[in-house]
Amino acid sequence: AQSVTQLDSQVPVFEEAPVELRCNYSSSVSVYLFWYVQYPNQGLQLLLKYLSGSTLVKSINGFEAEFNKSQTSFHLRKPSVHISDTAEYFCAVSDHGTASKLTFGTGTRLQVTL
Amino acid sequence: GAVVSQHPSRVICKSGTSVKIECRSLDFQATTMFWYRQFPKQSLMLMATSNEGSKATYEQGVEKDKFLINHASLTLSTLTVTSAHPEDSSFYICSARGDRGQGRDEQFFGPGTRLTVL
Known about the structure:
The complex is a heterodimer of chains A (114) and B (118). Chain A is mostly beta strands and 114 residues long. Helix content of chain A is 0%, strand content 50%. Chain A has no helices and 12 strands. In chain A, a hairpin with a 4-residue loop joins strand 8 (64-68) and strand 9. The mean pLDDT of chain A is 91. With 118 residues, chain B is mostly beta strands. Helix content of chain B is 0%, strand content 52%. Chain B contains no helices and 11 strands. In chain B, the strands form 2 sheets. In chain B, strands 2, 4, 5, 6, 9, 10 and 11 form a 7-stranded mixed sheet that branches. The N and C termini of chain B lie far apart (37 Å). The mean pLDDT of chain B is 89. The A-B interface holds A 4, 9, 36, 41-46, 90, 97-99, 101-107 and B 4, 6, 9, 32, 34, 36, 41-46, 49, 93, 95, 97, 105-112.
């Protein structure tokens, strides 16, 4: 069985400040890790994923996440956030890639203000 | 591309009635669709996986006779909540997966349906 823990339900941050959204997972097998973002009234969108190779993965809009096997973590970071980054962020894990069953965390609401 | 829609976005019904939720892949053919449920302050929980033309596979603890899933075409899956009760009130989200040949070998999510049972 797998589980995902997102300790922070809400993260308020000022625009242009750095942010880190924490994600820890538990699994007895090798995993694939994902971050999804959900903007208001929209479906979840894949932000970035770790399948294999480099442990640091990046999205096109400046987010990055690093897979840390020893700490079983996949924290999401951005050095400078924008108002438009305000959304709900979900960390997820799978043992067979994005096409298969995903186990989600409870989500973190990122609120960016001026 | 890779848009998934859900209808309705919000529904309120009386206890004992049945409610049907539609999930459509608008610009690709979905070989597999997934149905999730999300309670307030909780994570998305997978309810079932459906493949076009075959019976859905339900997760442990999900009543297949209560949550009827039909995946009759490559662009449409429906979830029917039969004899709904207040404890079925939740946010229902579907996702659709295409195939590798279409470059759609990942899950694309719909915007969700808020079900409230009075």
